[in-house]
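Re: that backbone. Tokens:
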């Protein structure tokens, strides 16, 4: 399941489908230009040649259709994808048609492509990762107040009665530079509780605070807040308020993203 979630963003891009389409097209062109007159059984060789050519062309067309419909037609309307497909087709054609002359360079290029794809997948995982820190279930909601069940991750739930129509988690985050995120660093957070707002987005006086906040300690947070501009690799230390209108009987998840944002989404 984790591998599927990792690969899904990558294959939602036209890039892998365009490269595959170019690869199959190059293979088909290589087969088409190969002579069968010197084969032991020319007729059988010719039949096999055209069958393989048709199969490769079908695979190329299928990849092209996937490049259009998996990411969406709007994402394929870019002339640069044609250049990518052409480069992949040329590399595949040279590799299959002139194996001795072009085989080694193409193998090197293929290895570089594999490394680039691996780095791409790592960047997708790094910058789209998120950590669920709590859920909020709305038991009741009216124009002036709401009844909520807050369930922090790994902690007992709490029943809250708050004024207003919007609730927001009080989360303090420490955001790291992109390079550290790419290498595996996740946003540090301190989840302190919930606050609420009315329809005019005026903050109410019924904040809920945990006796002991989840995440990093208050001492560590305070030190980072005072010194974040002096610490290499740290972008900023800040407090996030992401409000959500409470809808009766709906459950929401609170997540901290690796880019530092806090998301409240309907479950």
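Recovered sequence:
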């Amino acid at each position: 399941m984790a591998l599927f979630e990792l690969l899904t963003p990558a294959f939602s891009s036209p890039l892998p489908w365009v490269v595959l389409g170019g690869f199959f097209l190059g293979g088909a062109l290589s087969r088409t230009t190969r002579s069968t007159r010197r084969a032991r059984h020319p007729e059988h060789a010719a039949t096999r040649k055209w069958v393989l050519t048709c199969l490769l062309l079908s695979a190329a067309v299928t990849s092209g259709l996937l490049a259009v419909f998996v990411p969406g037609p709007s994402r394929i309307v870019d002339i640069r994808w044609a250049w990518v497909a052409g480069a992949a087709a040329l590399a595949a054609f040279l590799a299959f048609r002139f194996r001795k002359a072009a085989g080694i360079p193409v193998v090197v290029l293929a290895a570089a492509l594999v490394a680039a794809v691996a780095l791409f997948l790592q960047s997708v995982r790094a910058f789209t990762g998120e950590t669920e820190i709590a859920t909020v279930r709305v038991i009741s909601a009216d124009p002036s107040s709401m009844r909520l069940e807050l369930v922090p991750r790994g902690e007992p739930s709490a029943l809250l009665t708050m004024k207003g129509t919007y609730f927001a988690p009080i989360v303090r985050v420490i955001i790291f530079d992109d390079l550290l995120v790419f290498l595996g660093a996740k946003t540090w957070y301190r989840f302190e509780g919930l606050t609420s707002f009315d329809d005019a987005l005026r903050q109410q006086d019924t904040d809920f605070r945990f006796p002991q906040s989840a995440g990093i300690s208050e001492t560590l947070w305070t030190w980072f807040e005072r010194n974040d501009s002096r610490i290499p690799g740290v972008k900023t230390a800040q407090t996030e308020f992401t409000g959500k209108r409470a809808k009766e009987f709906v459950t929401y998840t609170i997540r901290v993203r690796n880019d530092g944002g806090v998301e409240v989404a309907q479950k």
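Residues 2-126 form one domain. The chain is about 45% helix and 30% strand.
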